[in-house]
Design goal:
heterodimer; A: alpha/beta; four-stranded antiparallel beta sheet; 10 strands; about 30% helix; about 30% strand; B: about 775 residues; alpha+beta; 4 domains; six-stranded mixed barrel; 20 strands; about 55% helix; elongated
Amino acid sequence: METIMVAKNLTKTYQMGEVKVEALKEASFELYKGELVVVLGPSGSGKSTLLNIIGGMDQATSGELYYLNKPLHTANSKELTLYRRHDVGFVFQFYNLMPNLTAYENINLAAQIAKDPLPIKELLEKVGLANRADHFPSQLSGGEQQRIALARALAKNPQIMLCDEPTGALDFTTSIQVLKLLKDFSTSYGKTVVVITHNTAIAQIADRIFYLKDGRLVKIEHNPNPLPPEKVTW
Amino acid sequence: MLRKKMLRDLKENKGTYLACIVVMILGIMVFTAFSLVVDNLKISQKSFYTEQNFADGFAQVEALPFSAIGNLQNIKGIKQIEGRIVKDVQVYAPQSQENIYLRLVSMDPSKENRLNDFLLEKGTPLSNKAMNIWVDNKFFEAQNLKLNDKLEIIANGKIRELKVVGFGKSPEFIYALRTTADLYPSPETFGIAFVPIEIMEKIFVTGVYNDLVFSLEPGVDFEDIEDTLEYKLKPYGLRSLIPRKDQVSHSLLEMEITSLETMARVMPVMFLGIAAMILYITLKRLIEQQRGQIGILKAFGYTRGEILSHYLSYPLVIALSSSFIGGILGIILAGPFTSMYRLFFNMPEAPDNFSILYLILGIVLSLTFALGAGYQGCKNILKLEPAQALRPPSPPSGRRILLERIPFFWNMLTVQGMMAVRNISRNKGRSFFIFVGIMFCFAITAFTWSMNDLIQKMLFDQYEKVEVYDLKISLSQSVDAKAVSRELSSFPGVNRAEPMAEIPVTLKNKWLEKDVVILGLPPNSHLYNILDAEGNSVELPDKGILLSERLASLLNASLGTKLNVDTPLIEDWDSTKQVEVRGIIPQYVGINAYMNINALQEFLKAGPLATSFMLTTEKERVIPLKEKYRESALVASIEAKEESFKKLQELMASYGSFIYIYALIGVIIGFAIIYSSSVITVSERSRELASMMVLGMTPAEVLSVATFEQWFLGLGAMIAGIPMSKLMLTGIAQAIESDIFSMPVVISPTSYLLALIITAISIWLAQQAAAGKIKKLSLVEVLKERE
């Protein structure tokens, strides 16, 4: 399998007033093309820190991180912006759509800055919201908003898709829809998808599972038979 | 505790509050300084007038026998009337390049309690027996005179020696102009001298008064005695009869005070209004942000009043600190400002009043604006119930806007552009604020620049395009035009000499009348061009009269109107004689009527008369020419245009600095508004902006959403600024329009261009300052939290 990201001893410390907090301690791992990775861990275990560093929103205090052999740990803010622009797609728990852009326009916002965007109409059909294209976020349900957010992240046709609790604010049925889309993106488009969650059930759909505890990557588990999302229950 | 919270909150948003404080300080400073200057000037004026017994009315006559005064004193309503001999003479100063003039005003040293009495600052009393004079202090200084110096004047063609025994000030010449065509006092070339009446009689060999001043009984108006006095003075060749309000020095001082008063009212309101708007939007935002905190405070049991007063303490602190600083600065500035005005207005220094009143008024004023704005911004918290306050506000909803119906425009926009344009209607109050702010910024700059432009153009045009002669010789009496022309033309170095007749007349249209001077000019004059509004030369008609625009409007005259003409110059004048208006032309300095000199001579039936001559000469021949004619009794003055022009340029240079101050004010306003609204936009939409950065947009691209919105609004605002600046200029033009000065309401394209550039620069600068806030956005934190 083709390696797209290599991390060596990533450590992140925050200065919180008088105290130093080690959010991430010497994490080393690789990410491969086309796999779906689920990062599990309780609150405060360093999941989001890890995701932010992978996504180029934050940089590690020490350690090395390479994306397609390009170092990200030494990149400047301009290079990080370009990395986010062309190679990473983000999905958040609280959607973060632009309230005054329609569904279509929200996706277009991402598409217009991408090198090789995916067609917006096709994405809307894929997320099952072609008939909602002209609606503003306030006119959409939470699940619909998250699917638009997903389509927006996909529109840039990124190599890596990073999802921070993508189903955290959604009900079960909607969550499954979202997970199906993520799985589909990794298998049919061959992109790397990283999902962080504290819902262990979701781990069943992953190719690999990262376990984080107190900022340490304590275990990487290989899952030879991932379940299709529709079979997952919780 | 809450006080600490307030101070920390203020610190967090220091940029915005600072902008607000600066604008407020400016407002209060202008208010205090100008109000104090006005007070200082008014107090000086009032006490000076009272103490020196300033007259209520002024009259000029041809000749009034000394004995006739008693008869006038009996007119009911007149308290005191005095006759005077007033003559303009030249100072004999062969070493001087410029002509120096002195207005000799007679006074009776033996009389007590004189009208328009001279305030002697230093020197000895005048004596009727000696050739002694008092001069005004500005002239005394400018000429480097010492007490008991001798001053030589040319009077009646003879050189006379006068001893300067004192100097001081006169209420009649606070703003001493030689002619109303002068714009500013020039003690280097013009002064006032007070001469004992007997000496005056001796110098001019005359036994008649040519000037009268009078005061009125309390409760009597000038209008009450005007007709009687006019009737009684008519036989003595009445030239003019005016109330105090039309006296040149007085009316200019009043005009200045009025315009200062207006400034002291309008400018602070403008500044405070802008500061209030900044406060309003900032506080409104703060309260939205602190919704949760307010909920907690309420849950703890803080009362609405306590919470409201906590949030009102922000504007309170801002208003108190800025009004205090502004007030102090204003008080400090009032001194130098007053001194600056004293350079022009020669009044005794009344002790500068340091009044705590304006400090208090300033505080009240700024508190009113700040607390009013603060309350408007805060009042919504009162409605919230604690549980409701703890919940996040309902999310903003997107809406389609009208502009989307214009596909051509809408399709041009990028998605960021669409966001920006939709954002305009998202917070209408703030958009309106930005709109108004930019409009003001643009209008103020366009208008001030244009005024500068206009004044320069008007004045310089007068010298460069209208009066194209080198020298003007004014005569003390009318002469035969042809003979004198011949004489002057033959003087070596004189290239051309043209006669001019300046005839004082009263023009009447039905009940409207106006005293003006008709300029009689040779047809096809090479030395005096009459121009229309476009600057094209206007030919003088063979018959009839041209009026300046202001004169035409004062007389309600239009083309074809027949005006009655009355002139004191000619005895047995038939005042039913009429002249037809054949043209109306712009004139910005002075108001005149123009006639073909031949037509004028014929109309007056006074032969080929001329009262002055315009010459072009070789430069090096100017001095010999002046030397030859300056002692002639016939020559009243010789004026070299270049000198007047140079002085004007100097004056304009100092006036120019005022323009930069106004432009700076425009920039500050524009900056404060754009900066504070940008900062608020960034804080309010931090989540959206951060989302865009996560999508991989550069800070510049993210900023462009906010800036596009501002430019879009700004463009509209600048367009709205065009009529706005025109309105302001119209206001000013109407306010300053007088017989001395009128201003066309034209704003040049360059002014608009400059205003555009200045406005754009201040918008851009403010945006750059706000851009720093975007760079500092922490993506991780912003996106993680729920609003």
